Structure formats: structure tokens, C-alpha cells
Amino acid sequence: MIQTYSTTIRRKEMDAVLTCMVDEKIGPGELNARLTAQVKEFFKCDGSTAFRSPSIALKYALQALDIAPESKIAISALAPAWQYQAVQSMNMVPVVLDVKEETGLVSVESLQKAVIEGVKVILFHESEGILPEYSEMEEILKLGVPVIEDISMSAGSSWTQREESASTNSNGETLSRKKAGLLGVFTILGLEERDVITAGGGAVLMAPGRREWIVLKKFCDEAPLTDLLPDINAALAWVQLKEFNRNETARKEIFNLYHHSCLIGRHKMLVRDIDEGSTMSCFPLVLASAFKDVKQYAAKKDIEIKPAYEGSVIELKMEELSESCIKAKSLYLRTAHFPLYPRLTHSESAKISKVLGTLP
I want to staple 45 with a disulfide (CB 3.0 to 4.6 A). Which of 33, 206, 239, 252 is the partner? Predict the structure, then answer.
């Protein structure tokens, strides 16, 4: 059976973790610092700190923003459930918003309405590695409240910008690219098992700009060791980040193969920029038939599929959100993840591609 998910741990990751164990230095220390330095170099942010969980990272971001208790925090219905639970645990109010059916992202219009109704922070989850249009993100940033980007699935993706100082393309336009995670006030990069970069658990909190980092650093410098990511986890994430471009190239090749197969099928893909504008962290397919029928068909071919939004806010609060988040509910019920990870062999990816083109 070809499993839906794999963290693709290679020899380099194993050696880094083993070295930590041999040196008996597994708590927060040198490799935690090395990881945050690598994050700063990769994303070109001003500073970062690695924590033991995304929830802890969010807590420090909200502290740095000086958000008062009982404040409303906007989150996506398709965001991971930890966001809802973390906001509540901090004595704040999660405001769950529906999504656009074609992308699975919260719309500008929904966020505008939420801000009018008193939302103080937007926690923007870039679901399935998909980014909104750059013009949409600009509109979101203009709403007058802090935006915290969640790039756990979209790390490495980027927006195209038109700038006077950028290189010129064949049409005479000046273009540059800006990586996901550099537009919000703060950014959370989850390092959980199924995130695009993993440490087996944890998260990195980034400050794209110097002014924001100066404020955040004061809180991070006072963080107890029990909040910081241990070196044994940081070692794995450090290598994963160094190997990101290699892994993403492999995922993109497989994604393009699947994409071609789906063009002749009856099921739909989420709308995304398949060049550099999205990260191929997974392969979601919006099904036109019952999930159980497709799952059974794939299982007969020894391919495991799972609900794409398993563990999401909409799953956690289905009864409560059923009427207000209709599109998110629809995507939750109809979207499947197919195996997509670098260690898939050519024969395995070809087999999955063939099945994608013949799904019932």
C-alpha cells in the first residue's frame, strides 16, 4: 500500500539527529540557534525563534502585538484545529470564516467584514500551499489590523511583484519575487509531522521586519527553555530546510504529472499558480463523487488516500459552523489527499497518476 503521507527522512536528517544523541545535547541550544539562522537566511526575515509548538509561537506573536484578552482573532475554517484551540486557551475569541471554494482560502470580503465587526488580528492560513493573488494580499494588509501569516504548508512559495528595480521580462515589465512569510507582521512556520518542513513537532516564529523583530525579541529572550525547540528536533528541521529546494523540485515534478492526468478526469483541482506561486506540499483533489467510493477504488490499486482537511477547524466544530461555513464544509467533505512526497519512486508516481485519470 502506498501511504498518503511520508516525511521523507534521508541519511542527512538521520545523521544530524544521531549526532545530537551521541553528543548528549538534545535540549534547546546550538542547533536551535543554527536552525533560526538558517530560517533567517532562507526567508530573508529579520529574526526568528524556534518553539516547541505552533500554539506557543502564536502566544508569543500575540504578546508582542499586545493583544488584549477577549479580543477577536480571525481564522479560516480550513485552518488546523490547533489555531481555534490555541486562541481559546489564550482567553481570546476565535472568529471562524468561510473560504473561497476554488482556492480554500479566506476571501478579502470576508476579512473586511470581520474587521468591521471587531476582529483585532488576522491569522492567515495559506492552505494546501496556495497563496492568494498578490493584489488580494495587499488588500488584506490594508485592513488596518495585524496579519500573522501561517506558512506551514506554503513555505518556499512566492509572489510576483512589479518593481522599478527588478529584472525586466520579455514583455518589458519589471518583475521580482517576494517569498510567502514576508508580508505579515509575524509569520508562523509549523514544523509538525505533516507540514512541508518538519521537525517532528514545533514551529518557528519569524519577524520579517526589523521594527517587529526588536519588539518580539524582547519576549523571546525571556522565554523559558521549556518553550523553545529542543536541539534533537531542530537538527531534523535544519537539514529539512537546507534540503527544501531539492525536495520541492521532486514534489513539483510529481505534482505536474498528477495535474496532467487530472485534466482528463471529472474531478477538480484547487486553483493555484503551479510555477513558483504555490508550494507542492500535497496533492488535494476536489471529488465529484463520494469520497468513500474513490477511497475504495484507490485502495484496490494499493493507494491510500485521506481527507485533505482532516484535523481542521471545520472538522472540530462541524455542528457549530455547518451553516456559516458552507463552502469550507463542502471542501472538507469532498477533498482528498493523494500521496505526494519526494521518496515516491517513478513507478509509484506513475501508478498514482494513472489512477487519478481513471477515478470513478
Answer: 206
